[in-house]
């Protein structure tokens, strides 16, 4: 009986309910799109921060060592044990890891800093580097200032002398890094190790780990556990600023989303309240026919609940498409839908729709005679 | 007669009118708040990005190659070109002077250091810089700047050195190489040893005031006031590198073009936009003989994230505007629907559809303006709260938002009433009056 009444009620008011349904659907779409965005934004922004370069460094205890590897005060680390530890700390969050060894060598009689590193890894760590020339193979990358000073172009070869050793390397490409590497020559780590007479030695290891500050810290501590002799530290310039900026951006988006949430709820509430007000005549009739208040209220709540659930579900699906579009527009990649958004939005919509019926609590006061007279 | 009708209509049933106006006010408050924040977010976020430190590096143009490893220049002091400290005040005279938030000169001196009176001498680097230094600006004022603003992540245990005094702070890695470390209060003898001319007279004694942790190569060096490093190197009033922290606008198509290829109008627009390229250009103009480069790692990240966040915020603001419009339209529609009986009476006694619509629209207009104005005031308050909670400082009200909020309130209130009014126009008065 109740179900049948509900069904008649829903069918009988198709036109008016459709208006309310549109309000609920659009509200749910906006809310679910924003919630999807909010769940994904941290990951998306963290990805953008990759451009800042490495965020972890493995260095000898006490601090970073970066100076001429041949100088007496340089403390060198063992490359193999670090590579081994990194390989053991399996993590999908690791984007890249590059070892560095520096020497101040002579090229054409002039002193130049030569950095030994795994060039492909170093490029992964520094997405802002721009190469002009051939793709790096077994030659070297020449910083743009060095290239200007020594008049080098890709395809040339460069003679590097360190102490009594000399090697000749082909110039694969010029490097525009917008940083200190513009004044350096980058060559393969093994080559520089041989030149420096420091086989298997490095000065420090740089890593980029993606994720939030806590994920980075977790990776750092698990790596540190397998490297007791060395120190694994976040690079404060990058990690601190990153955490700070992520928080601010998140806070900004979240507060905007809360505002919109309140507004959308208000909109749905207004529509539902208007619907309820129009029902006063039906209520008067039902009361005259002997319906109890509880029963009438139950009927209306059920109607509105169905409206909220159907509208919420349809809105969620529309919201996924909206979030996709927003993701494309803002980040160039679509936003992955989060499933927890579905129940959240639907429950919210049902709650808001039910709250819209609150004016009906005045039902008890409805005097059938007055209403039916048309006042 | 029309005015009286509208006035009567407004006075009757004040509670319902208040409800409509309140819905309008809430909608417009949110609109005002989001718009106010969206208008300022670029500037605020750009300021936040300065926690990344400097985004511009100034070096002498005709320089030999810096032997720079991890930020420290290992060139001997008598090699390469220098810049003049006395010119630095000019940085605050460029067109975008207010966007220059800080700058710090650096002078690296290879030196041998001895802790205490009888310790062994050790090779190290002495870095001369400013922590908080008053720079004289040509207009007569002072500007306080230094590593505190360009390297905000540097952490000190103890105190920073005082400018122009024989004090210094020791990098944590260097301090750790001494058994028992170095504590503030000890003295260090520093002798410059990088040049070919060994001069024993150039020995200075500095008092250690703190231990600094930077996460970079400075951890192995001794940081002293710039004047001390100048005295040590014999390059009075000079420095090697200048880090500048400037507020910039994300690069767009115009920013990436070569200034020489721009038409005069485009050039003016480029010059008058705080792009990193136009600020570098203006710095090169006031500091002739320098090479100003963007520190791309910082500048690119900043530009990308800034433009992303502001696009995102504009989309969210649009969504807020749409939601506000929908809420207001729904409320307006409800008010009109509820008064079908009145409309029936009016039509029964001979009012035309136009007259009925006129009265209702005039009433909605007054409500929209009143509600919109109240909403604007609330919105300013809301924007202040938002600004404070997100950025720590309240967002300043923008007057441009007022016409937008009022206009939007009027448009959505009228649009919301139009649909039910059109339906009302089709009403046959008789069944309505009968109460059907």
What's the short version?
The complex is a heterodimer of chains A (375) and B (436). Helices cover 54% and strands 19% of the residues of chain A. By secondary structure, chain A is an alpha+beta fold.
Secondary-structure blueprint:
The complex is a heterodimer of chains A (375) and B (436).
Chain A: H1 2-12, H2 14-48, E1 56-60, E2 77-78, H3 79-88, E3 94-107, E4 110-117, H4 119-125, E5 130-133, E6 140-143, H5 144-150, E7 157-162, E8 165-176, E9 184-188, H6 189-196, E10 201-202, E11 204-209, H7 213-225, E12 230-234, H8 236-278, H9 280-288, H10 293-331, H11 341-356, H12 368-373
Parallel strand pairs in A: 4-9, 6-8
Antiparallel strand pairs in A: 1-11, 1-12, 2-10, 3-4, 3-7, 3-11, 5-8, 6-9, 7-8
Chain B: H1 2-11, H2 14-49, E1 56-60, E2 68-69, E3 72-73, E4 83-84, E5 100-115, E6 122-129, E7 133-136, E8 142-145, H3 147-150, E9 155-158, E10 167-171, H4 172-176, E11 187-192, E12 203-213, E13 222-225, H5 226-233, E14 238-239, E15 241-246, H6 264-271, H7 276-286, E16 290-294, H8 296-338, H9 340-348, H10 353-391, H11 401-425, H12 429-434
Parallel strand pairs in B: 6-13, 10-12
Antiparallel strand pairs in B: 1-15, 1-16, 2-3, 4-14, 5-6, 5-11, 5-15, 7-8, 9-12, 10-13, 11-12
Largest sheet of chain A: 6 strands, mixed, barrel
Spans of at least 5 consecutive residues with low confidence of chain B: none
| Bulk shape of chain B | elongated
Strand order of the largest sheet of chain A: 3-4-9-6-8-7
As an assembly, this protein is heterodimer
How many alpha or pi helices of chain B? Answer: 12
The total count of helices of chain A amounts to: 12
Give the mean pLDDT of chain B. Answer: 83
| Rg over CA atoms of chain A | 33 Å
**pLDDT under 50 segments of chain A (min length 5)?**
none
């Amino acid at each position: 009986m109740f179900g049948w009444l509900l069904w008649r009620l829903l069918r009988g008011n198709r036109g008016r309910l459709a208006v309310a349904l549109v309000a609920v659907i659009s509200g749910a779409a906006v809310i679910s799109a924003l919630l999807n965005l909010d769940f994904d934004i941290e990951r998306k922004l963290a990805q953008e921060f990759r451009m800042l370069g490495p965020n972890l460094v493995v260095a000898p205890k006490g601090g970073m060592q970066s100076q001429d590897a041949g100088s007496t005060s340089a403390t060198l680390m063992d490359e193999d044990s670090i590579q081994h530890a990194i390989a053991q700390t399996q993590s999908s969050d690791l984007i890249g890891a590059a070892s560095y060894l520096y020497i101040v060598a002579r090229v054409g009689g002039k002193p130049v800093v030569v950095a030994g590193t795994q060039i492909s890894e170093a490029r992964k760590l520094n997405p802002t580097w721009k190469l002009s020339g051939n793709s790096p193979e077994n030659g070297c990358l020449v910083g743009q200032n060095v290239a200007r000073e020594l008049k080098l172009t890709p395809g040339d070869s460069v003679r590097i002398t360190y102490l009594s050793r000399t090697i000749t390397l082909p110039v694969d490409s010029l490097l525009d890094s917008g940083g200190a590497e513009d004044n350096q020559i980058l060559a393969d780590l093994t080559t520089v190790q041989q030149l420096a007479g420091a086989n298997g030695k490095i000065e420090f290891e740089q890593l980029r780990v993606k994720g939030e500050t806590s994920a980075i810290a977790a990776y750092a501590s698990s790596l540190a556990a397998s490297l007791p002799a060395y120190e694994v530290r976040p690079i404060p310039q990058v990690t601190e600023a990153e955490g700070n900026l992520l928080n601010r951006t998140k806070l900004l988006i979240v507060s905007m989303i809360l505002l919109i949430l309140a507004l959308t709820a208000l909109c749905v509430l207004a529509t539902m309240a208007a619907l309820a007000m129009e029902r006063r005549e039906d209520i008067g009739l039902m009361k005259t026919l002997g319906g109890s208040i509880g029963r009438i209220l139950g009927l209306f709540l059920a109607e509105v609940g169905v409206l909220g659930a159907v509208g919420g579900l349809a809105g969620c699906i529309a919201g996924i498409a909206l979030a996709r579009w927003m993701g494309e527009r803002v980040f160039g990649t679509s936003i992955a839908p989060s499933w927890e958004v579905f129940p959240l939005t639907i429950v919210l919509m049902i709650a808001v729709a039910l709250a819209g019926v609150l004016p009906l609590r005045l039902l008890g006061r409805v005097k059938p005679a007055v209403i039916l007279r048309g006042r | 007669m029309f005015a009286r009708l509208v006035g009567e209509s407004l006075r009757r049933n004040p509670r319902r009118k208040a409800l409509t106006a309140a819905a309008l006010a809430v909608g417009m408050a949110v609109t005002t708040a989001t718009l106010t924040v969206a208008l300022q977010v670029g500037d605020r976020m750009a300021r936040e990005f300065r926690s990344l430190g400097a985004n511009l590096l100034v070096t002498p143009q005709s320089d030999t190659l810096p032997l720079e490893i991890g930020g420290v220049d290992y060139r001997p002091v008598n090699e390469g070109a220098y810049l003049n400290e006395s010119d630095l005040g000019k940085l605050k005279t460029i067109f975008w002077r207010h966007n220059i938030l800080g700058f710090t000169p650096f002078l690296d001196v290879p030196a041998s250091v001895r802790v205490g009176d009888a310790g062994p001498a050790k090779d190290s680097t002495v870095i001369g810089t400013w922590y908080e230094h008053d720079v004289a600006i040509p207009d007569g004022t002072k500007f306080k700047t230094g590593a505190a603003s360009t390297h905000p992540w540097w952490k000190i245990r103890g105190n920073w050195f005082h400018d122009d005094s024989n004090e210094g702070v020791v990098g944590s890695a260097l301090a750790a190489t001494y058994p028992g470390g170095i504590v503030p209060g000890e003295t260090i003898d520093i002798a410059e040893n990088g040049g070919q001319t060994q001069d024993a007279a150039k020995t200075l004694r500095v008092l250690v005031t703190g231990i600094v942790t930077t996460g970079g190569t400075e951890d192995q060096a001794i940081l002293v006031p710039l004047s001390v490093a100048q005295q040590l190197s014999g390059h009075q009033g000079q420095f090697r590198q200048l880090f500048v922290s400037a507020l910039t606008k994300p690069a767009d198509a115009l920013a990436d073009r070569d200034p020489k290829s721009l038409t005069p109008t485009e050039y003016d627009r480029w010059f008058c936009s705080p792009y990193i390229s136009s600020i570098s250009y203006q710095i090169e103009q006031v500091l002739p003989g320098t090479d100003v480069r963007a520190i791309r790692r910082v500048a690119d990240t900043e530009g990308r994230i800034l433009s992303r966040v502001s696009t995102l915020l504009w989309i969210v603001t649009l969504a807020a505007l749409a939601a506000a419009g929908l809420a207001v339209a729904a409320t307006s529609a409800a008010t009109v629907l509820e008064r079908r009986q009145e409309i029936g009476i009016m039509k029964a006694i001979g009012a035309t559809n136009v007259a009925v619509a006129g009265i209702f629209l005039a009433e909605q207009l007054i409500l929209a303006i009143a509600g919109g104005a109240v909403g604007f005031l609330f919105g300013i308050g809301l924007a202040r709260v938002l600004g404070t909670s997100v950025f720590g400082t309240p967002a300043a009200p923008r007057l441009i938002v007022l016409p937008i909020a009022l206009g939007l309130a009027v448009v959505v209130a009228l649009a919301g009433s139009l649909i039910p009014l059109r339906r009302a126009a089709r009403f046959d008065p008789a069944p309505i009056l009968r109460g059907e």
